[in-house]
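Quick one: C-alpha cells for this chain, please?
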Amino acid sequence: MTGSTREPPDHVDVLIIGAGLSGIGAAHYLQERTPGKTYAIFEARATLGGTWDLFRYPGVRSDSDLSTFSYEFRPWRHSASIAPARLILDYLRETAAEEGIEQHIHYSHCVTDLAWSTAEGRWTAIVEHGPGRQTTSVHASWVFCAGGYYRYDEGYSPPFPGADEFRGRIVHPQDWPEDLDYTDKNVVVIGSGATAMTIVPAIAGATRHVTLLQRTPTYVLRLPSVDDYAVRMRARHGDRRGHELARRRSIRRQRIIWTMSRRYPGAMRRFIRWVNRRSLPAGYPVDVHFNPPYNPWDQRLCLAPDGDLFHALRDGTASIATDRIRTFTKTGVLVESGREIPADIVITATGLNIQLFGGIRLTVDGEPVVPRDHVVYRGMMLDDVPNFAFAIGYTNATWTLKIGLLCEYFTRLLDHMDENGWAVCRPELPAGGVTRRPLLDFGAGYVQRSLDSLPRQGDRDPWITSVNYYDDVKRFRKAPVQDGSLRFERTPTTPALS
C-alpha cells in the first residue's frame, strides 16, 4: 500500500488518525454523506490495517463473525465467517483502494500533539514523519481519532520470577519474531484469552507439545468457521442483500447470547459446560480447566472455530494446566502445585496495554486534557473538548457495529452544524453534573488495569456508553442531534448557542 505521495495539506475539515478498521470506515461515511468535506488520514505505521497488519502470530483471526465484523456498506464475500487476518486485511485494502480512500492516507505520519485554539476555532496537529522524524503542523476543523484503545508498540508482560534464568526464548504475541521456529519444541502459552486460544491449536500440530498455562479458566464456545446461512443468503439474494440478512441474524444471535448470559448466568454456564463436555474426551476434567469463577460475559467469551482447541486436546498435541506460576526454571515453568512444565519456548499471551488516543497529548487553549477528568458524550466525545470525536467499539458484541453507528452520527452532526452555520461544537455536562461511573463495565484484566486512566461515563443519556446495538440505532440514527447537551458556536468570536 502506497497511500498519498503528496505532502499533507495545511488544513482539512476532518483529520482522521489511524488507517485501521475504524479509520477506513470513518473515511467512507465522510465521503458518502458529507462529500464536500476535505479530510486526511494520518497513519503512524507504514501500511494500513491496524490490528490486522500488526499481529503476526500463528492463527491470528477474528473473534467475531465477519457478517458483523465487516462493514455494513461493503459485503463480506468470503465463505469464512471466523476469518484469518490475511483475509480481513485484504478486505480492508480492497475497500480503501476501490473507494479512493487510500489516496487520502499519509503513512508513517505519527501525530504526537493536538492543540485546540478557541481564538482560531481549530486544531493544530504536530506530526512526525520521514527518516529524520521531522515535524509538520497541520490544521483541522475536526479531529476523529480512530486508533483504537491499546498500545501498538508494546503488549502487557507482567514480571515472572526466574525469567532471567530461563534458557529458552520468551515471546509476546504482539512482537512475534519472524525467525521463531517452534517445530518439535516444547511450548508453553501463558494466558487464557482469545490470543492464547488462537495460538495453541494453530501450532499444536508442529510442536513436540504445547501447554496452555492459565491461572483462571475462561468460557470457550465452539462455533463453525463457515456460516452456512450467510453463504446461502448471498447465493440466493446476491452479495448486498445476502450480507444484510446474514448481518441481521448475527446481530440478533449475539444479543440473545449476551442477554441470556446476563439474565440467566447459571443456565448459560451449564449450557457452555455441556457443550465443552461433548467436545472433549470422556472423563476430561472440564470443571478444572473450563469452569471460570465468574459469570459468562463478565469477560469476553472465547471462540474455538470448528472446535480447533478441543481437537488439539483430544489428540494429545496440546494440554491445559490450570495453576499459578511459582517461578521460571532453566528448562521450563514451575507451578504452585509443584509440577515443572518443560519448555523450549514460552509465549506470554498476557494481554494488551490500553493507551487512549494513541498516546497523543491533547490541550485546549494551552491546558492539558486529562481523560479521566472528563465524561464521555454518546460514547464518542469528551465533555468540554471541542470538535474532537473518537471511535471505541462494543466490548459485548462486534467492534464494527458500534463504529458504523458512531460514524453515521458524526456525519449527521457535521451536516447539522453546516445547516446552521456553526463552526464549533462541544458537549457540556448539565448544571447538576452526572454520577460518574467507569467507562467500561468489563472484567478483562487489560481493562481493569487501566480504568483509573480512562474517562468516565455518566448515569443517564446522552452520557451513558451504551452496549446495546438496538438502543444505539435509535440514539445515533434517529434521535435529534440537538439534545440540549451540545454547545455550538457560529465562529470563534460570536455568542454560543446551546
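The chain has a mean pLDDT of 93.
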